From TrEMBL:
Residues 290-320 are annotated as: Disordered. The chain crosses the membrane at residues 530-549. The keyword Transmembrane helix applies. CDD domains: SEC14. This is Motile sperm domain-containing protein 2. PANTHER family: MOTILE SPERM DOMAIN-CONTAINING PROTEIN 2. Residues 84-246 form the CRAL-TRIO domain. One of its GO terms (cellular component) is endoplasmic reticulum-endosome membrane contact site.
Length: 571
C-alpha cells in the first residue's frame, strides 16, 4: 500500500465535541434557520457522523477547536442552503444512473470504496449542471447516510478527455462539496491519466485548494495506480484484471437516499388554500402516495403525468378521477433543458423568446398615439409531452395578452401577442416596474378549453414552472414588420450579455487561453534552453573532434620523424 495516503486522527471525544458545538452554536441550533434540524439530530445521535467533523482539517498533534467549529458552522450552513437533506432521485434524469459517469465500484488497498468519475461521458455546455450537481449531492448523501463514517476515494478518469469534457463549474462544486458539505468524507483523490492539454487547467484548479490539499491528490497512470488499488479491483482499461462492467439495477428501495433515521422523520408539504396533503419524503422516481382526501375533482380526463419543478421534493398521485402528479424527471430532453438554443432560452422544456425583457415599441408615430404598443412572445415546446401555459402580469389593466392560456404539443410553436394599451404608451408612464410571469406544466392528454380553465383553477403550485420577464418602453417608432427583427436583435444581445452560462463559459475559455499561453511560453523557454544546451554539446563535440584530429596528425608526424631518424642511423 502506498505510504503517502493521509491518516486521520481522533483528537477529541465525540461527546466532548458535541458539547462544544451545542454550546458555541446554541442560538443557531435552536432557531433552525441556518442549520437543518435533521443534520443537527444526525450530528447529536450518530457517532460516525460526528467523527467526520472531528477528523476533518486536523493536521497538528493537538485538536484545533476553533478550526473544527468553523468547519462545522460553514458545513451546516452550506448543507441547509443547498437543501442537501431533501435530495432525491426525482431531481435528475433517471438515465444518469445508466450513463456510467459517476458510480461506486470496487475498493482500494485500504478498503475505501472507489467513486468513479468518468469525465469523458460529460460534454461541457451540453449538460444541465444543476441536475448533475444534484446527482453528485445524491451520491455523496446516500453514501454517508447508509455508511456513516466510511471515507471514500474519488477516482477521476481523465483518459481520452479534453477541454470539451472538463467543466470547471462542476469541478469547483465537487471540491466545495468534499471540503464544506461533506467534511471527513474524502480519504484521498486520484487523477488518472491527465492529458497534457489539461495540465494548464489543473494549475487553475490547484489555486482553489488549500496547501494541505496536496497530500490528498495523487496523479496516477496504469502503472502507478497499482500502488493504491489491487489489480483485481481495477478494470482492464486501467491495467487491471477486473473484467466486470458496472451496471445499475433500477430498484426504488436500493436507490432511496433514506436511512433508518429518515424513516422516522417525515416531512410535510402544504399546498395552497385549504387543500393540503401530508406527504413523506419521496424515495424513488416512481413512488407515489395514493389518496382521495381533500383533492378537488375536475371533469377532465386523467393525465398520465405532470412533472413537477425543482422546488418540489415530493411525489403525489391521486385517484383515477383526479390528475396525477409524479416527480419522475425535471428534464424532458437533457440536451435541451436549461440551455441556450440560438436566440431563445430553454427552461424545463419550454423555449422562450425573448427570455429576459419585453421591449414594447410603437407601431405608429409618437405624435399620433392612435395605436397600442406591441411586443411578441414566442413559446416553443422542446420536449416530448404536451404542456399548458398561462401568462400573468403585474398590471392587467395596462396589458392585453392573446392567447393568455393555451396548450402546446411536442415540437409546436406559438406566438403570443402582448399589447400595452395606447393610454400607457407614453414616456411619462413608467412600465419598467411591470413584469410578466409565464407559468407552465406538463400534462399527458389534450384538454378542451373548458377543461383547461378548470384545470388551472385546481392545479397545485408545486407542479408549476415559472419564468419572469421585465418590461420596458422604446420611444423609437417602428413598423410592424420590423418588430420581430428588433426582438431578435435584442434577444440575441440579451442571451450573449446576460446569460450566466455563456458568461461563465467565456470566463472559463479566457482562463484556459491564459493558461495555455502561459504553458506555451514556458515550453518556449524550455525549448530555448534545450537549444542552448544542444549548441553547447555541439561545440564540445567539435572541440573533441579537433582534439582527436590533432592527436592523430601529431602521432602520425611523430611516427614519421622517428622512422626517418631510424633510416639515417642505419645509413
Amino acid at each position: 500500500m502506498a505510504s503517502s495516503i493521509p491518516t486521520f486522527a481522533t483528537l477529541i471525544s465525540v461527546d466532548r465535541f458535541r458539547e462544544l458545538v451545542n454550546k458555541h452554536f446554541e442560538k443557531e441550533v435552536n432557531e433552525n434557520e441556518l442549520y437543518d434540524p435533521h443534520d443537527i439530530q444526525r450530528f447529536n445521535e450518530v457517532d460516525e457522523y460526528t467523527l467526520m467533523y472531528i477528523q476533518h482539517g486536523q493536521f497538528g498533534p493537538d485538536f484545533d477547536a476553533d478550526r473544527a467549529l468553523q468547519i462545522f458552522n460553514i458545513s451546516m450552513s452550506w448543507r441547509k442552503s443547498h437543501n442537501v437533506y431533501d435530495v432525491s432521485t426525482n431531481e435528475f434524469p433517471a438515465d444518469y444512473f445508466d450513463r456510467n459517469g459517476i458510480y461506486f465500484k470496487n475498493r482500494d488497498m485500504s478498503n475505501y470504496p472507489l467513486l468513479h468519475f468518468d469525465v469523458r461521458t460529460f460534454k461541457k455546455g451540453q449538460e444541465d449542471n444543476e441536475a448533475v450537481k444534484r446527482f453528485i449531492t445524491y451520491t455523496f448523501e446516500r453514501h454517508i447516510r447508509r455508511h456513516p463514517g466510511e471515507k471514500i476515494v474519488i477516482l477521476f478518469d481523465l483518459s481520452e478527455t479534453g477541454l470539451r469534457n472538463l467543466d470547471l463549474d462542476l469541478v469547483k462544486f465537487i471540491i466545495s462539496s468534499v471540503q464544506i458539505g461533506y467534511p471527513g468524507l474524502l480519504a484521498y483523490m486520484m487523477i488518472y491519466k491527465m492529458p497534457f492539454i489539461l495540465q494548464a487547467v489543473w494549475r487553475l484548479i490547484r489555486s482553489w485548494l488549500p496547501a494541505e490539499a496536496e497530500q490528498f491528490i495523487k496523479f496516477v497512470d496504469a502503472k502507478s495506480i497499482t500502488q493504491y488499488v489491487q489489480p483485481d479491483q481495477l478494470s482492464i482499461a486501467m491495467g487491471g484484471n477486473d473484467t466486470t462492467n458496472y451496471v445499475h439495477l433500477h430498484d426504488p428501495i436500493n436507490e432511496a437516499v433514506e436511512d433508518s433515521m429518515n424513516a422516522s422523520l417525515k416531512k410535510k408539504v402544504t399546498f395552497a388554500d385549504s387543500n393540503s396533503l401530508d406527504l413523506p419524503l419521496s424515495s424513488s422516481p416512481t413512488e407515489s402516495i395514493i389518496t382521495t382526501d381533500n383533492i378537488p375533482k375536475i371533469d377532465s380526463p386523467s393525465h398520465d403525468e405532470l412533472l413537477t419543478p425543482e422546488e418540489s421534493n415530493h411525489s403525489t398521485s391521486t385517484s383515477d378521477s383526479c390528475h396525477i402528479v409524479s416527480r419522475k424527471s425535471i428534464l424532458q430532453k437533457p440536451n435541451l433543458v436549461n440551455g441556450c438554443m440560438g436566440e431563445e432560452k430553454v427552461y424545463h422544456g419550454l423555449g422562450i423568446r425573448p427570455y429576459d425583457e419585453m421591449i414594447f415599441e410603437r407601431i405608429d408615430p409618437l405624435s399620433q398615439g392612435t395605436s397600442d404598443c406591441v411586443q411578441t412572445l414566442q413559446l416553443t415546446n422542446m420536449g416530448d409531452k404536451i404542456l399548458t401555459f398561462k401568462i400573468k402580469t403585474t398590471s392587467p389593466d395596462k396589458f392585453r395578452v392573446k392567447p393568455g392560456c393555451s396548450l402546446l404539443h411536442p415540437g409546436a410553436k406559438t406566438t403570443v401577442s402582448v399589447y400595452l394599451l395606447k393610454a400607457y404608451c407614453t414616456p411619462t408612464n413608467n412600465i419598467n416596474k411591470e413584469k410578466f410571469l409565464i407559468i407552465w406544466t406538463l400534462i399527458g392528454h389534450e384538454l378542451k378549453q373548458a377543461q383547461l380553465i378548470e384545470f388551472w383553477k385546481t392545479v397545485p403550485n408545486s407542479v408549476l414552472y415559472e419564468h419572469r420577464l421585465r418590461c420596458s418602453l422604446s420611444n423609437k417608432p417602428t413598423s410592424v414588420t420590423s418588430i420581430n427583427q428588433s426582438n431578435e436583435i435584442h434577444s440575441l444581445h440579451s442571451s450573449i450579455s446576460s446569460d450566466p452560462s455563456i458568461v461563465a463559459m467565456q470566463n472559463i475559455l479566457k482562463d484556459s487561453i491564459t493558461l495555455q499561453k502561459t504553458t506555451i511560453a514556458e515550453t518556449a523557454r524550455e525549448l530555448k534552453q534545450i537549444r542552448y544546451l544542444l549548441l553547447i554539446i555541439f561545440v564540445l563535440l567539435f572541440l573533441v573532434l579537433l582534439l582527436d584530429v590533432h592527436k592523430y596528425f601529431f602521432s602520425f608526424s611523430s611516427s614519421s620523424s622517428s622512422s626517418s631518424s631510424s633510416v639515417k642511423s642505419d645509413l
